[in-house]
Amino acid sequence: MFGSHAGARVLPALVALSSFGNIIAVLIGHARIIREIGRQGVLPYPKVWSSTKPFGTAFVPLLVSWLLTVIVIVAPPAGDAFNFVVDLQSYPSNVFTLLSFAGLYIIRRRRAKEGLPDVGYRAWHVAIVFSCAISILLLVMPWVPPSGGIYGGDVSFLYCMYCIVGIAILALCGLFWYVTIKLMPRLRGYAIVNETVHEEDGTSYNKLVKVWADGTRS
Asked: Which of 64, 77, 84, 110 holds its CA 20 to 30 A away from the CA of 47?
C-alpha cells in the first residue's frame, strides 16, 4: 500500500520511535511512583528514594525501574515465561489504577469536610468515571475464557493464571502490611508514628518510627 520504501523502512522506524517514547514515559512515570512510595516511608531508606541528586531528578527510582525493565526483557525465555511475566504485571497495575481513581474522590470528600478550597487543577468527573470504567473492564475481561478454551490464551497453561497469581501477590502484600503495621505493634507494645523529615535541599520524606511505651524511639 505504501510502497517498498515507506512500507519497509519509514513506517517501522516510526513504530520504533513510538515504542521508544512510550518506554521513556513509562520509565519516568514508574520512577515517580516508586519515589512517592519511598517518600511515604513504606520502603526502607526513604532518604535514598526521595533524593533528587545528582541530576535533579528521581535517579535511584529511575535506575530501579530501568533495571527491572531490562531484566524482564532479557531474562525470561521467549514463550510462556515472557508472556506470563508481561501479563502478570498488567493485572495488579490495573488494580492500583482503579484504586488511584477511587482515591481522588476520597481526597475530595475529605477536603470538602475540612473546608479546604479547590486546588488549581481538578480532573473532570466524566474523565474519572470513564477511566474507572476502563479499569473495571480490564479487571473483569481477563477472567472470560478465550474462544480456544481455558488453555487457548497466550500461554500453554490456564489462561487466567496471571490473574490468580497477581491477586495472590496483592494478598501477600496486604498480609505483610497487617502483620508489620497492625499486629506486631499490638503484640510487642509499641506504636508506629509517621514523622516528616525536611532536608536542606528542600526534599521532604516521611519516616516510620517505633515509639515504645517508655517513650523511646527506634
From this structure: 110
Rounded distance, CA 141 to CA 152, Å? 15
Q: Which residue has the cell 512515570?
A: 29
Q: Give the H/E segment covering residue 40.
A: none
| CA-based R_g, the chain, Å | 22
List pLDDT tens digits, range 103-137. Answer: 888 988 888 888 888 777 888 889 889 988 999 99
Residue 211: which residues within 8 A CB-CB, separation 6 or more? 190, 191, 192, 193, 217
Q: Strands (DSSP E) along 131-198, which ranges?
A: 190-198
> Residue 170: is it exposed, middle or buried by C-beta count within 10 angstroms (0-12/13-18/19+)?
middle
pTM: 0.74
Convert the pLDDT of each residue in 59-90 to its tens digit.
Answer: 888 888 888 888 888 887 878 888 888 888 88
Which pLDDT band, with edges at 50, 70 and 90, does 168 fall under?
Answer: very high
Kindly state the cell numbers that stand for 186. Answer: 499490638
31 within 8 A of 65, measured Cβ to Cβ: yes
